[in-house]
Recover the amino acids of this structure.
């Protein structure tokens, strides 16, 4: 068991190292780092001073070492546009993105598992087929277009929900959140539903496939033979067994929710990290782009590591396979 | 195969099995129409949407079905955008750009992924480990993130977006080809080819490659749809194609500002065109997957 975690940990560190190298090559070696790290408004003297201060006249290997050391210390440069440390700018926006992603995941789970169970229990019924067709649409529809349609229907035509922004936020343990006030919740609803759509389709399909497989297993037949109620068979015996893959996917997909939040945040003007990234790309505010990249890579690596570890805890077969290897 | 059956003709079998699903046939028909529109857009469009001489500001933001204010009462069936451009023509041209970018990037990624996947499977050992580790790491990040970062570092333009789409997609092909090739490699015909002392290149490209193609065709079809969606998303975010070569994503993005004031058609119809393209490709891919899957063969 500790061997598995240790191996995954080493792998994660390797990924982080490779990624830092790629970022470094992207910023320092391919492009002209002066363009990327120094404000375009700077004059010749300023550029010369900044070049020396950033150590851009030193050999590449040394520069990489400095870059690594500064990144590890959380120093990823200052934003040109806001003149504050880039990392601070991103950390300020992170709660909004996390709130959106968590809300979307909750919607996907709360609606996805029951719908998937239903479609798995009655695969040939009209309702079961409708659910599956709907989930195919969920995969096919481009996220940004669904977002536009949600705005068109619920904000413009019906006027029920606000189309943009986060609404008033309430401090929860020092972190601003939207979901605690009625108006904030109204602002959260459309973007969260938009972001949830793809994951909802995924969870429906996973649950349905798992249910159909589980229903054929001997333990289900045995539970029925014992005379257990159908509700107990489904909610205790079947559901418990199909949860393992669902938990894994929920964990793994959380990272992709944060990535896809870039699109949803842009559509709904949700003030999160993703919208910041797009604005920074448009304003050529490169230190922020580099900082976003470093943070998101670290986040992904941590999520993948956590999922691997949790998975090996949940599923004894993974542990056994590792022990045998 | 039962005696008395017609001789084995893979193409005919695939065609007839494909036709068994009506919804797949409908998807194929829709896809053919879309491809024809994309191919002949300049010939069938009511106007050239990017010839400024043909546009009239008086015609801007007209609703669907409205008559032109200036030239002889032409009807704009899908309305006009903020520059008085006929949406129908804009969509035809946009479709052309979107499909071209999707197909071009898919073909390039296919070629690159194919080579790396075959290399990994044929030689094994450290070559395999190295290539597949890179593939694994890349696939653990969402494609939109990788494409965005590449565009942020490279800048914008048609060539750059194709580079980004290729970089995002190649790993899928590499993994698929490697999987298929590992299975094929153990078969007797490979041993026979090696026994004949054929060159590595000949074995890989004449014997191994053709037998790995079916799963690749399925992945490539799905990926064209994914590439078109990704390109539309990037263009919508303002990081894709320049305004001179608008794809469907850019058209949708242009209309976004007007949607809040109820002028839905500028975004809505390009979105429908995008949707029809993606859904028709996915329907065809879905049926192809069933038809080309040897495990499901009757």
């Amino acid at each position: 068991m500790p061997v598995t975690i240790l191996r995954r940990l080493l792998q994660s560190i390797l990924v982080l190292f490779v990624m830092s190298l790629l970022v470094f090559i992207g910023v320092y070696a391919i492009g002209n780092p002066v363009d990327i790290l120094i404000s375009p408004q700077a004059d010749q003297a300023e550029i010369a001073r900044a070049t020396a201060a950033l150590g851009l006249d030193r050999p590449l290997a040394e520069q990489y070492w400095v870059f690594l050391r500064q990144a590890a210390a959380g120093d990823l440069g200052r934003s040109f546009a806001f003149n504050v440390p880039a990392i601070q700018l991103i950390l300020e926006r992170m709660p909004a993105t996390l709130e959106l992603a968590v809300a979307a995941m909750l919607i996907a789970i709360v609606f996805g598992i029951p719908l998937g169970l239903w479609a798995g229990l009655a695969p040939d019924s009209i309702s079961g087929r409708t659910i599956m067709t709907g989930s195919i649409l969920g995969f096919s529809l481009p996220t940004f277009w669904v977002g536009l349609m949600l705005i068109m229907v619920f904000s413009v035509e019906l006027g029920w929900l606000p189309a943009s922004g986060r609404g008033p936020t309430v401090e929860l343990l020092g972190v601003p959140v939207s979901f605690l006030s009625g108006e904030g919740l109204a602002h959260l609803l459309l973007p969260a539903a938009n972001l949830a759509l793809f994951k909802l389709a995924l969870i429906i399909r996973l649950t349905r496939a798992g249910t159909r497989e589980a229903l054929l297993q001997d333990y289900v037949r045995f539970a029925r033979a014992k005379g257990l109620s159908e509700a107990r068979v489904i909610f205790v015996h079947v559901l418990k067994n199909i949860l393992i893959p669902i938990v894994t996917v929920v964990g793994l997909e959380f990272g992709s929710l944060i990535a896809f939040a870039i699109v949803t945040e842009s559509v709904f003007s949700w003030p999160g990290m993703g919208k910041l990234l797009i604005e920074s790309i448009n304003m050529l505010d490169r230190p922020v782009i580099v900082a976003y990249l470093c943070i998101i890579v670290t986040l992904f690596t941590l999520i993948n590591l956590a999922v691997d570890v949790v998975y090996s805890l949940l599923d004894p077969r993974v542990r056994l396979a590792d022990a045998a290897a | 195969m039962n005696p008395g059956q017609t001789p084995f003709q893979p193409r005919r079998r695939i065609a007839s099995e494909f036709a068994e699903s009506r919804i797949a046939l409908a998807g194929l028909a829709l896809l053919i129409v879309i491809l024809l529109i994309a191919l002949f857009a300049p010939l069938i469009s009511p106007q050239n949407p990017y010839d400024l001489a043909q546009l009239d500001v008086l015609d801007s933001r007209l609703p669907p079905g409205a008559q032109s204010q200036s030239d002889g009462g032409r009807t704009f069936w899908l309305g006009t955008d903020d520059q008085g451009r006929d949406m129908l023509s804009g969509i035809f041209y946009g479709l052309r750009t979107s499909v071209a970018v999707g197909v071009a990037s898919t073909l390039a990624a296919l070629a690159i992924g194919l080579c790396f996947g075959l290399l990994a499977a044929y030689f094994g050992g450290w070559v395999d480990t190295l290539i597949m580790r890179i593939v694994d790491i890349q696939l653990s990040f969402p494609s939109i993130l990788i494409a965005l970062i590449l565009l942020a570092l490279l800048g914008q333009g048609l060539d750059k977006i194709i580079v980004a789409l290729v970089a995002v997609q190649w790993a899928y092909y590499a993994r698929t080809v490697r999987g298929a090739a590992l299975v094929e490699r153990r078969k007797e015909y490979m041993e026979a080819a090696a026994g004949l002392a054929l060159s590595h290149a000949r074995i890989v490209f004449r014997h191994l490659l053709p037998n790995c193609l079916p799963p690749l065709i399925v992945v490539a079809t799905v990926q064209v749809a994914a590439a078109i969606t990704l390109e539309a998303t990037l263009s919508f975010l303002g990081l894709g194609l320049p305004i001179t070569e608008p794809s469907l994503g850019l058209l949708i993005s242009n209309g976004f500002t007007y949607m809040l004031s109820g002028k839905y058609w500028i975004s809505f119809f390009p979105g429908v065109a995008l949707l029809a393209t993606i859904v028709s490709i996915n329907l065809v891919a879905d049926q192809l997957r069933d038809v080309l899957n040897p495990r499901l063969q009757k």
